[in-house]
Write a structure and sequence with these properties.
The complex is a heterodimer of chains A (238) and B (315).
Chain A lengths: L7 H22 L3 H26 L3 H27 L12 H24 L8 H18 L3 H22 L5 H29 L14 H12 L3
Helix pairs in contact in A: 1-2, 1-5, 1-6, 2-3, 2-6, 3-6, 3-7, 4-5, 5-6, 6-7
Chain B lengths: L1 H31 L9 H11 L10 H19 L9 H5 L2 H21 L3 H32 L4 H11 L5 H17 L18 H4 L5 H26 L10 H28 L8 H24 L2
Helix pairs in contact in B: 1-3, 1-10, 1-11, 2-10, 3-5, 3-10, 5-6, 6-7, 6-8, 6-12, 8-10, 8-12, 10-11
Classes of the chains: A mainly alpha (238), B mainly alpha (315).
């Protein structure tokens, strides 16, 4: 469907979805934790705005509620919880050293192309005007997965996980007219519980290996743990 | 015949307006920093001063050093003449598309870098190597942004792109937004503006463009400086006229041409003020962070291309 035939409001939806994709890339390459949390909050706000605009242009009443839920949960509550965790862990000024940042971003671009190729048969079926966004939402999911794979910092991995969920939600909004309310409430509750559990895990990980770099979990063995423990604590945060 | 006359007039206008734009940017920047600043027409006075001064050439310089300012100036001028400034459908813009424009700019840059290395001083070589580092990264990003525009308009000619944009009217195109971001970042890098290079610096550690001009005096220096200002004008016109072409003259009547001139002057004044504001707010980044900056430009260009295919064409 060519963009020129869409009314302005629906063009705006497409624009917001493209911006959400761009923020996914920013999240992928952002080394400062606090800035990454802010980027995630903006992505949540964009997804909420997409939902709201779809509701405006499609007269799907229950989408207003999901937009509000997304805004509160993903743009305010979860970023706030993450922010508080980062402050309590003393990681406000933490920056992560990325290996091959340009290469990872190019891998993200390849994932976008892959998801477009994957979605192409579905798009040809012809759905609503939002069908072009399905590829974007799948790319959001895959880039979140890529972020979880290549980041070593536990908080950054959680951010990748949460942005995956953003992609899934966008897919639900764009492919169908949103999920039933019960499912959405369930997912929202799951996310909250997951967030609380992640917080507990952060402290557990930090207590056991004195760092949130999960790559170090590979080094934990029964034999080595005793004599290598002072070595880890000398490293400090990483 | 009148068409060629207007094309010539527009090319002369590019050269005449370039010092005014740089004077305006410097003036706004000075006011933002609570300085009074030089008068708006100071760059013209600088050029005149340099033109009448004696031109000295280092005795190790080869003939290439003497001809380089003329080649750089003419290449930049030709590139600027291919961009529609006040009127759209000009023969100069029809015979050269965007790829020729990028090529002309690359030609000028090549001779600039050669001239920087010619005398054999350390700074010239340093500046030339840095300039080549920056431009080799900026060029792919620029081409990606340009291809995004070309894919939308199905034409690599700037006239085609602008005509397509004018007939389509106002559309919220994500690809244009990304291409705009990419072009702005590339323009900042190519014109040596603040996050990448400081145009007023003479500090050895940070110079890029100035380092290549250190050995030049008199009219050679004037031509080199003028070429740099024309390049800034070129990128400014490219950005405002491709993304906001409204107001540009589509017919060759005096009224339409006057309107086109007024429109482009207002648009450039706003862009120049935005540039000055950005330069006041931002600090120059370390040289080794420039690749990251230009990677962002390349990413924006690629996303523009992809979002055109995924979101705008559809199945």
């Amino acid at each position: 469907m060519s963009l020129a035939v869409l009314p302005l409001l629906q063009q705006f939806v497409v624009l917001l979805a493209a911006l959400a994709l761009f923020l996914s890339f920013v999240l992928l390459a952002q080394t400062r934790l606090v800035a990454a949390i802010h980027v995630f909050a903006w992505q949540g706000a964009l997804v909420a705005a997409v939902t709201f605009t779809v509701a405006l242009s499609g007269h799907a009443g229950h989408l207003y509620f999901s937009a509000l839920l997304t805004l509160i949960l993903k743009a305010l509550l979860i970023p706030w919880m993450l922010h508080r965790l980062v402050r309590r862990l003393g990681l406000e000024r933490h920056t992560e050293r990325l290996r091959h940042p340009a290469l990872v971003v190019m891998a993200g671009v390849a994932l976008v192309i892959f998801s477009y190729w994957l979605v192409l048969p579905m798009v040809e079926q012809g759905l609503a005007f939002t069908r072009n966004i399905i590829a974007v939402s799948l790319a959001l999911v895959l880039i979140g997965l890529l972020m979880m794979v290549f980041r070593q910092q536990a908080v950054a991995q959680v951010l990748g996980f949460m942005s995956m969920e953003n992609g899934l939600f966008l897919a639900a909004v764009s492919a169908t007219a949103g999920m039933p309310l019960v499912v959405e409430l369930g997912v929202a509750f799951d996310l909250l519980v997951a967030m609380v559990l992640f917080g507990v895990f952060f402290f557990q990980i930090r207590d056991s290996i004195d760092s949130l770099n999960v790559d170090r979990l590979n080094r934990l063995t029964e034999v080595e743990s005793l004599d290598s423990a002072p070595h880890h604590s000398a490293d400090g945060w990483s | 015949m009148t068409v060629w006359f207007i094309a010539l007039l527009q090319a002369l206008l590019c050269v005449a307006l370039a010092p005014l734009l740089i004077g305006w940017v410097r003036r706004v920047k000075a006011r933002l920093q609570n300085r009074r600043g030089a008068p708006l027409l100071q760059p013209y006075a600088d050029l005149r001063k340099l033109m009448v001064k004696e031109t000295r050439v280092a005795h190790t310089a080869s003939p290439l050093f003497r001809v380089a300012p003329y080649i750089v100036f003419v290449a930049t001028w030709l590139a600027c003449a291919t961009v529609p400034l006040i009127a759209l459908d000009l023969p100069t813009a029809r015979i050269a598309d965007i790829i020729v424009l990028v090529g002309l700019l690359a030609l000028g840059r090549f001779f600039l870098a050669l001239a920087g290395m010619d005398v054999g001083t350390a700074f010239g070589g340093l500046g030339a190597s840095r300039e080549m580092l920056i431009s080799s990264l900026a060029e792919p990003a620029m081409l990606m942004a340009v291809f995004t525009l070309a894919m939308t308009a199905h034409s690599t000619s700037l006239v085609g792109v602008m005509e397509h944009h004018l007939t389509d009217g106002f559309l919220l195109r994500p690809s244009y937004l990304f291409a705009f971001g990419a072009l702005v970042l590339v323009a900042l890098a190519e014109c040596g503006r603040i996050p990448v290079d400081n145009p007023t610096t003479h500090l050895e550690l940070t110079m890029v463009h100035e380092a290549m001009l250190l050995e030049y005096t008199g009219r050679h220096l004037a031509l080199m400086e003028w070429a740099a200002w024309i390049k800034l004008l070129l990128y400014g016109v490219l950005i405002v006229n491709v993304f906001l072409p409204w107001g540009i003259a589509t017919a060759f009547t005096p009224a339409a041409l006057a309107l086109g001139l007024i429109a482009v002057v207002i648009k450039l004044a706003l862009l120049g003020a935005a540039l000055a504001l950005g330069e006041t707010l931002m600090a120059k980044m370390r040289l080794f962070r420039v690749p990251g900056f230009l990677n962002l430009a390349l990413l924006l260009g690629l996303l523009g291309l992809l979002s055109h295919v995924i979101l705008e064409v559809g199945a």
